[in-house]
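Hello K.,

You asked for the raw outputs rather than the summary table, so here they are, unedited. I folded two proteins back to back in the same session to keep the settings identical. This is the first:
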Amino acid sequence: MAESGAPQMSLLEKKIDDQIEYYFGDHNLPRDKFLKEQIQLDDGWVPLETMIKFNRLSCLTTDFKVILEALSKSQTGLLEISEDKTKIRRSPSKPLPEINDQYKDEIKNRSVYVKGFPTDITLDELKEWFNDKGNVENIQMRRTLQRQFKGSVFVVFDTDVSAKKFVAQKDLKYKDAEMIVLLKEDYFKKKNEDRKHHRAEVKAKAKHEKEEKQKQAEDEEMKSLDEQTGCLLKFSGELEDQTSREDLQELFSGHGMIKWIDFTRGAKEGTILFKSNAKEALDKAKAAHGDNLQIKKKDVTWELLEGDDEKETLKKIIEDQQQSLNRKRGRGGRKFGGRGGRRERGGRDQGKLQYQGKKTKFESEDECDQEPASPKKRALDDVKAEEVGEPASKQMKTENGSGKQ
């Protein structure tokens, strides 16, 4: 390239030189898969015929003479021109930096987050705005997954001093818009704090909703209890060990519709929940048995539950009902348990209620950045919102420009 004292570049020549040096620069080349493949074909040389297929360069010029003239005036020493004037490459005397943690930290320390740009701004307009704000090496336009510009950029300055100097400027504006400016590291700290705050808000909201649902469930439960007032009948006595819920169903058959029986075989007491008034069912059953209502010829004390006793017993029945339904769901929703009980197969117990152990029977239980396809498709501002200036092992499609390439 040209030595010091080379002729002054025109505006077009400077844009061409900046763009090509960006392609081969520290920020783009390590992540540009296509260009890395090209430089491996011929000892680092890339034909100008290939270079003019890059969109941003082709928008400036496709004339080899103009490109070579611009590069010949560059004083960075980054690029070399082949003897036959048909190819260019990154100078072997300027190898890419080693991509290690130290290098990544160094890039991060001179990177800045800037927000407040209009979403329809172009990369050239961004470069123009940053032109007098320090020595900028790289600009990344942050985008959504739908490739829409988010109005914010990550900018890499030449030194951490330049980056801090830019951040220290007051009242930065793009046209009339106030800009948000943070060192990149401070930006990520703020984002993490915002995420923690958001998670805390979500957790608090979920807790509140859970409490509201629980309160609603309790209100519904109390409403259910009120609707079933007067439907509980308690019985006790020296019952036979073989007394079952089927005996109670038979005893009140035709006198009252039973909704739930809380009774265990061998127990001496239990509770019956009727669909309607328990006293009416009891009176009808007594009348049908000469006012001496026994269970399997055993005397029984019958008690209509009222007040707190009634509510507590109803609560227990509702809990037992829910547990029974949950057990059914845990068995895959089979109505009668097992792999096909007698009722399903038409066995001898078909049509009868089944009572086993402590199970209580309730009538409702059974109802209950990218690689381009070709250089022509490469777009300079197609950079995804990953950490700018920190070259990755895989290239995302990018022809992102910079203030100084």
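The second followed immediately with the same parameters:
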Amino acid sequence: SSGINAEYGQMRPDAPPSRPCPGDENEKSLAECQLSGPEFEEHMRSLDLRFFTPTEIARIHGYPEWFTFPDHVTEKQRYRLLGNGLNVTVVKLLLRRLLGDVE
């Protein structure tokens, strides 16, 4: 475990949208950089990233605004449940594409 995730807990509204590869005047993207180990971790920390919340993930999956988990479901369980879920609308469209437009 690298420990990077500990800093992702809060969103920083004043954070810039993105930063170029460290020390690169041509502003290559991170994917074009060949960073590894501590250099990669340092760059990732500088981006001020954060995890999506379970509520944000639920909305991305198409859950309605009124949806909430029961209070006894822990945050870790919520991430796990949502991570194992599928967007019903996407599945419906894929099945229609695979099976034809059967109603």
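Confidence is low (pLDDT under 50) at residues 1-11, 15-19.

Happy to rerun anything if the numbers look odd on your end.

Regards,
P.
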